[in-house]
Amino acid sequence: MSGASRVPAAEQTLAILTHLARRAGPQPAGRIASDLGLPRSTTYHLLGVLTEAGFVVHLPEERRYGLGVTAFEVGSAYTHQDALARLARPLLARLVDSVGQSAHLAVLHGREVLYVVEERARGRPTLVTDVGVRLPAQLAASGRAMLAALPPAQVRALFPDRGAFVQRHGLGPTSLSALRGLLVDVRARGYALEDGEVTPGFASVASAVLDHAGHPTAGLAITYAAQDADADPGALADRLREVADSLSRRIGGRPAH
């Protein structure tokens, strides 16, 4: 097969991935083929290839296909560029100045969060959330905020069994059902919380930064000493959500709040 003859297949593959990325949840293969005007046989073939590579996950009980872990890893590679950090850093600096607590920006990388910006408040203790550090997404507030913005099928793909739940201090969800319950609370509350699950004695609030399709591009969090009487989680969350919405607009996304 010549190089030129591969172009249509590449275009069709990208069309399927883009189509799935813009939908709220997994789609039947027949619907994908119909929406894109592709032959059903071609659609099934390409979905099979994408599934093997991890870009797509097949949900046999539902007879649907959704984005897989590899797709999210590739998507998060955007943040390895300097653009997102440059856009976020001045917003975080002003946030830290206004609340007097440390703040950071993280992105999903598989089942982990990767910290890409850290703004330390003057006089506050050093935190584990330094740039380049990875932590379990289900434990970090920023990770929970992003997971809560994903379709349930994608969360299930990221956490298929108990072995996917890494612990740090014996706290946090250890099963998919427990994680789902936690994410329901995050969505109802409008922001994510964690207390002592990343670092004993410290708590965090977080909010998701969304792209144009409503998918989480990053998570913004404020971390404070759990015993700090001046730290009001609700008030911090209100300020944080304003900043998250501002960053969403800066990257061409849509505000969550």
Structural notes for this entry:
The protein is α+β, with helices and mostly antiparallel strands and 257 residues long. It has two domains: 4-67, Arc Repressor Mutant, subunit A (Orthogonal Bundle), CATH 1.10.10.10; 74-250, GAF domain (Beta-Lactamase, 2-Layer Sandwich), CATH 3.30.450.40. The protein has helices at 7-21, 29-36, 40-52, 69-76, 82-99, 141-148, 152-158, 176-189, 233-250, and strands at residues 56-59, 64-67, 102-109, 112-119, 134-136, 192-195, 202-210, 216-225. Strands 5-4-3-8-7-6 form a six-stranded antiparallel sheet, sandwiched between helices. Strands 1-2 form a two-stranded antiparallel ribbon. β3 (102-109) and β4 form a beta hairpin. It is elongated and about 60 Å long.
Computed over alpha carbons, the radius of gyration is: 19 Å
Supply the number of helical segments. Answer: 9
Helical residue percent band: 40-55%
Across the major sheet, the strand order is: 5-4-3-8-7-6
Quote the CATH topology of the largest domain.
Answer: Beta-Lactamase
What is the residue-mean pLDDT, rounded to a whole number? 87
